[in-house]
Design goal:
181 residues, alpha+beta, Aspartate Aminotransferase, domain 1, 4-stranded antiparallel sheet, 3-stranded mixed sheet, 5 helices, 34% helix
Length: 181
């Protein structure tokens, strides 16, 4: 049985580690990555494994929408280099911890729980607060884009280049929104 880790959203620094499975000290047999692999500039994804497994595929046996594209490969290599050179993963870990701590301290009857790793943070709102969508829309009106998930969870996933002044600016608005009626 193979262990396959889907790191499309969680990989490449989003959680404050290169891969989310690093937190559990798990080395999957196969890992799928994408989205951040191009820094958002070009559609690219990848399947990672060792030669023993990937070597089972012979040319023509497996296809890929984005496979075999030299430009995509060059963009991906550059994005990976920039992640390391600009310390984006460390930034995600440090600012993610700060952001999550600040969100946890918001005194709001609407907030049930704050959870996350790095710059992938979920704020669960109480079911009697009218759902996450109204908070997402109020934040959008203030210039903060978030995603409603599972009706009662607001997903914060700011860019890995975010800085502390920007987090602090956002927190002012987030506090106000979470304290609306």
């Amino acid at each position: 049985m193979l262990l396959i880790a889907d790191e499309i959203q969680t990989g490449l620094g989003r959680t404050g580690s290169l891969f989310a499975c690093d937190y559990e000290k798990v080395r999957p047999d196969v890992m799928i990555i994408g989205k951040a692999l191009s820094g958002g500039f070009y559609p690219v994804s990848a399947v990672l494994s060792d030669r023993r497994l990937l070597g089972l595929f012979q040319p023509g046996e497996h296809g890929s929408t984005f496979g075999g594209n030299p430009l995509a490969a060059a963009v991906a290599r550059t994005a990976l280099r920039v992640l390391r050179e600009e310390n984006m993963i460390e930034n995600a870990a440090q600012l993610g911890e700060y952001f999550q701590e600040q969100l946890t301290e918001i005194p709001s009857p609407h907030v049930k729980e704050v959870r996350g790793k790095g710059l992938l943070i979920g704020v669960e709102v109480n079911p009697d607060s009218g759902g996450a969508r109204r908070f997402c829309e109020a934040l959008k009106d203030r210039g903060i884009l978030v995603k409603e998930t599972h009706e009662n969870v607001i997903r914060f996933a700011p860019p890995l280049i975010i800085d502390r002044p920007t987090v602090d600016w956002a927190l002012v608005h987030i506090r106000e929104v979470f304290n609306m009626r």
